[in-house]
Amino acid sequence: MRKIGLLFAALAMGALGFSAASAQDNVIKIASQSPLSGPQSALGIGIRNGTELAIRQLSGPIEALGFTIQYVPFDDQALPDIGVSNAQQIIADAAILGVIGHLNSGVAIPSSEVYATADLVMVSPSNTNPVVTDRGLPNVNRICGRDDFQGPTAAQFAFDRGVTSVFILDDTTAYGVGLADFFEQKALELGIEVLGRQGTAETANFDSIITPIVSLNPDAIFFGGIFNQTGVFINQARAAGFDGIYLSGDGSDSTEFAALAGEAGIGTLLTSTAGPASLFPNAAQFIADYTEAFGGPPITYATEAYDATAVLLLAIEKAIQDAGGMMPTRAAVAAAVREVEYEGLTGPISFDANGDRTFATYYVLEVRSGDPATYDETKEVIGIVELPSPLTTVEPALSSIASIVSDLASGDEPEFTLLLTVVAAADPAILEALADPDSNITVFAPTDEAFLAAIEALGGDAAALLADTELLTNVLLYHVVEGSVFSSDLSTMMVPTLLGPELSIVVSESGVTVNGANVILADVEASNGVIHVIDAVLLPPTE
To answer: How confident is the model at residue 328 (pLDDT cuts 50, 70, 90)?
Structure first.
């Protein structure tokens, strides 16, 4: 996969003698679609603002090639028919080479099919329904995560908080229904009793829904929907006597949720594929610039919109270069997006063959304020997990065990995820051994360096790996994607691994165990109320 640098084309133009585009053909437009009016506009405006700021700041290399970038924002009003109508207008304008959007999956899915008829690429900052990318359209990409990971994350967190029963609501849209479906599947798998499920488009008076729910006395309510419903609902549910845990998804992560829920919203747990901008180490300047430009700090998905636009600009730049400095085709831009490897504000960005982000991060947030003015600055990140996309998880390894062991012997450090995939593919018995309590050795290694250190600590070496095939079947290679975290509270939780099986993490006063094995923590870093395990070696389970 080729890396595309921000300044590459600008440097290459002089070296290769590319000619500038003619004046009449030098306008390139980037469109966005999100709700800029109506009840969900708070999040849609954030997408527009993030897109606009990125175009202002990152268009230089393309302008150096003789082109002008123009931004054309469209208001889809969070309605599928409006989104499709806008999409028809967008593809009719030959100068538009890409679209940033949408906010709502239910709008993105039909609109993206219109874009596909014209090879027009879409890079979404916020569409989480699996169908968005699972159709395999070559023009559709997203830099956020997926609901089939977000929903289970919420269910797992509810289980870890002691929830044994739940009532599930959804907003009847593709987003809300999908998120609730995946939450429900995981909840049932964990043994949480689902007392009922209901879809509703109500936004004002939930009395007829709340009364029977309160009579069931669930430990928790999960609502897959957007803030304009979920905020009103919890305000009324608390007034009606519901005192359990309230959970929702990224669609509720807005200052408008606080405005509608008020004090009743405090304590709400939200899963999201968008982290607060303040959480990202490279976003300080972005926060300052956004605040100066738009009169307030970045809101949910504004940062992701900035990164999505950066990806699109890089692709356009590369497509211009490949076209000899001339206006590229839409198909060329779409293909270039899939090649991008970019260190964005939200972290490394690359795409699998379906357009999913190779590794996406999922956050659990707790609402700490009922005041919109302090909502963003007070909400707390209480859980983070980074997970590979479905295709990243199952992609076959391209190297053999022998070549990897050779790398070890020569001192080169193989990529740990590749090593794990190769070993598992070579001997499926390893997957069975993951759940075998009689296994004699376990290696837990979040990083390449940690894996090598763990093997050395256990007395192993490259020669032993090469000579002793039995060691390969007995050494269990767990890989928790770097950035995954364990709650610092005394608790039990399940953490997904690269290959799918989950690790049972128990944090107690006496230490940490994983799947019943004691953990020796070689290096632990604490931040944001969580523990990051950097290096760890597991001892065999005690009898």
So the answer is: very high
